[in-house]
Amino acid sequence: MADGPLRGVRILDLTHVWAGPLGTRFLADLGAEVVKIEAPMGRGPREFPVNETLGGWIDGGPGDEPWNRNAIFVKLQRNKRSVAIDLKTDAGRETFLRLVRVADVVVENFHSVTMSRLGLSYEVLAAENPSIIYVAMPGYGIEGPYSQRVAFGPAVEAMSGLSDVLGYGPDEPRNTAMALMDAVAAVSAAGGVVTALRRRKQTGKGAFVEMALHEAAVSFCGPWLIESQLGKPVERLANRHPKMEPHGVYPSAGEDQWIAIACRNDDDWRALCSVVPGLDADADFATRRRDRLEIDAVISRWTSHRDKCTAAGALQTAAVPAGPVNTTPEMLSDPQARERKFFVPLEPGPTSMPGNPIKMQGISSSDWTPCPKFGADNAAVLKDWLDYSDEEIDELERSGVIVDRPPA
Description:
By secondary structure, this protein is of the alpha/beta class. The chain is built from 18 helices and nine strands. It has two domains: 10-220 and 345-398, Rossmann fold (3-Layer(aba) Sandwich), CATH 3.40.50.10540; 247-251 and 258-324, no CATH class.
């Protein structure tokens, strides 16, 4: 496994979709030994009914093993090991409980009652291993009037209040449509794990950690919640900012090319005026707010005739916060990301994967491993963790309790 500060920590990862797998990927990147516990159909069927899946295929096509080439899945599973086991069987459940006895952490983001229905609730796992740290990531929590509801990122985002402040006018709320709250929950879950590990080191006690997707989303939306509680109106400002002027995204040369510019204070405004002709350097914030449409028009005339990177460079030279709105290919080829080697060429094909934003001594991507094939580590983990014999493993394989390809 990857080296790092969490090396030696054993995590059983039962998560799916994005929030949970991303959270456990953070932990795997930091050196934890994360074993992905996968259902026999966890990566989909042997034969996909269409030639495309959500997010496409690693290396451009489904190949002979499409279940191992789902791009979104692969992106989230690096530095992990895969054990594909049927937890609905008695033998599978018993094997999982034996793994729990020697694990440090279990993470799942199922519906609030799924683990209980499998007979694998926190109470059951804690009876097997009192020092286990169990992280549950239900959509709305394990109690409350919404606890039985199905949760998915875009719907949770809307319920968080974020969608109410996104959009270009009072009659046009927007949604990011990318399940942004899953990523927020992933960071919160990883933080919860390391906090519980530190607490266990101090007290010797395990923990039940509940991290509801909805509550992670609401915590992301603090500023306008506070404004509302203080009785102040919450405006839908589009690309504007309540305390900065000008602040927005402006057209640049080329089709659908843009640059973002922000003036935090009067110094930024005067610096902007030194680069963009036609602006009044003596205008204070109130004047700039009043005349914002005219100011935006002057800025747009200047930016629309310039390459977005060139314009951003000129503004940055004058110490004005500005940056080009990168497309995905431009983000991958951005000289800053390339110089810092942020994207890692870990998987097959031309596309690199996002690296680890945490930079510190002892953490490197040089020893990272790509997403394991489905069930690739069945035997290795059962031998390493549980001292299973070849005969025991063969019997689990023959009975279909552990598999290395989806059922036919």
